[in-house]
Hints:
By secondary structure, this protein is α/β, with parallel strands linked by helices. The chain is built from 14 helices and 14 strands.
Amino acid sequence: MILNNLSKGVALAALTTSIGTFSTTAQAFDLYFDLYTGEKTGAYYNKICPAIKKEASQNGVELNCKTSSGSIDNLEKVLDKPNNFGLSQFDQFALKYSNQANQLVYTPIHDDIGSECLFMVTKNKLISNFGDVVASAPYLNFILPPEKSGHAGTFKYLQSIDPNGLGKAAKVSFANSTEDAITQTLTSEDNVTLLVQTADPKNALFTLVNKNKGHFVPVISKEVLGQTVKGTKVYKAQETAVSNPKWHKSGTKVITSCTPIMLFTGKSLKIQNPDDKKAHEQAIAKLTAIPAEKLRPQQSWFSKLWNNSKALSAKAVEGLVDTAEEAKKVSSPYLSKAKTATEPYVEKAKDVTKDVIDAAKPTYDAAKEQTKKAIDAAKPAYDAAKEQTQKAIEAAKPTLDAIKEKTEELGKKAYDQASDLVKGSEKAAEKADDASRGSE
């Protein structure tokens, strides 16, 4: 086991104290615990936890597989409640455990169940190795799985160990899920994401990448492979399968960095209730005593998975590291490669554009000259029309004034005549009235 020197003493001590007191029926204590895994679509929840649960149950420990955001979330859940159990990438667990204070919080149980490997994913075929990603970090969009996932935690760790490389990534965002991160990433060639996954080509995430024409970029560099925690290597280079063979072509394999899968829990000393504390100690002892191979999924899936990943010699890895280092020397490899690839076409386009402009210039100049002539020719007619209009307005003015005056005169005369008629009618009415009264 990788953490042999850290966990063996704790496990044996717990086993010793519980041998004489543990009931074979497991009825004296409640040995029922939650085991936090990852997202519903991930291998932790679907494959690894069910296998651990099955073997643990046969040894008197009931584990309930619970979903979570991933490794970082699981570490926090155990921090909040010491008798929770969790699965984690070793790189994330080791970072926590390297802190002396956290050695009083966490209890490692197994680090030999399996391993997960690091893959950058993009649709940009010009990005072929980790050196390309590192050197182009300031220009790329990194769209990562949720912030509490192991994927995101590993990305932050890779940034911390290479501040002048991946640490210069300026555009980093987090998606709502790992599937969402992959889907968003594969919409543009400027996007990259990071997956930390078991080497299972049938995994839904691998299928999603392959279906959307993404490709896997191995994470290999001297900084990554040089990381150790308390003398233990955090990553080892392995050859991994990322797509299955098809009838017309073989499967795809890449060589990348991998980190072990951890099964862990909290410290029993942090549990206040004596019965809960004792049950927790017994569960740790029993799970530690189970051989790792029995905790692995027994289906053909895992046996094939084990065959899909194999460790490589230092010499085999050396060439990959050198390739990544060479790529880093270019300020932005994928931009440089794109420029190199398109330069001849750009120059050709410039030549064609210049030819078109040169050919069109006489026509443009002729059209410009004809337009000017037409404007000049029309100007006298325009000026004459303008002048004639003004003269017509001036000539019509006396007539308009005369009409206005005559209208006023006729109107007044008509008014006066109407007024006289009204007055005459009124006088006639008065006379008729007087005549009527006289006859009476």
